[in-house]
Amino acid sequence: xxxxxxxxxxxxxxxxxxxxxxxxxxxxxxxxxxxxxxxxxxxxxxxxxxxxxxxxxxxxxxxxxxxxxxxxxxxxxxxxxxxxxxxxxxxxxxxxxxxxxxxxxxxxxxxxxxxxxxxxxxxxxxxxxxxxxxxxxxxxxxxxxxxxxxxxxxxxxxxxxxxxxxxxxxxxxxxxxxxxxxxxxxxxxxxxxxxxxxxxxxxxxxxxxxxxxxxxxxxxxxxxxxxxxxxxxxxxxxxxxxxxxxxxxxxxxxxxxx
Length: 258
What we know:
This protein is α/β, with parallel strands linked by helices. The protein has a single domain, classed as TIM Barrel (Alpha-Beta Barrel). Helices cover about 40% and strands about 15% of the residues. It has helices at about 15-25, 40-55, 75-90, 110-125, 140-145, 165-170, 190-195, 225-235, 240-255, and strands at about 1-5, 30-35, 60, 90-100, 130-135, 155, 175-180, 200-205. Helix 4 (about 110-125) packs parallel to helix 5. The chain is globular.
């Protein structure tokens, strides 16, 4: 299986990265999509080490909505930075994570929207899929994606909504990536949404080091635990973990083209 979203180049994994990757492989994780912040030189530098230890891993790079305010006077500057990163970082297969976050509002909403649009244009021109971050901003996120018609493809990362939200997201043609939240006892609505999502539109992720699934909740998350996410999704779908793994692996490779 593939962890479709993790922050393995973060400083949280610097001390024991070889062991983390070894545990992932032992758990049957064949690859991962590693998210890189376009402005973070240290994180981008650490990607070289991740790639050396795990050649099957791929990267996605983008300006997160939390940092969009850095481009308040020049939203197009985010697109220029993204272009330069796409040209210089090896093994990049996607633009992301990008989008809107109205929960924290670390950046003004109009600036978030402008930076999001600018990066979507890059993804469209480069024919790269996008990794979407959206929190309490569903309507605006869907509207902006809709502006591009069917010219972009991508995934709603860390999807944790209900059946109605899943239907709205799926209508864009994008995939849903399910995090460890699906294993939480009170996540019944998410499990219902998973059951009603076509199997060929599902991915699974850890979002590590965040959101560790049960029984690891409260600990640092890591790619090995995507196996537990897969088990929870398989249970919701009433299929075997092996069947779920085969499906989401095929979906991830189809979307990210590797």
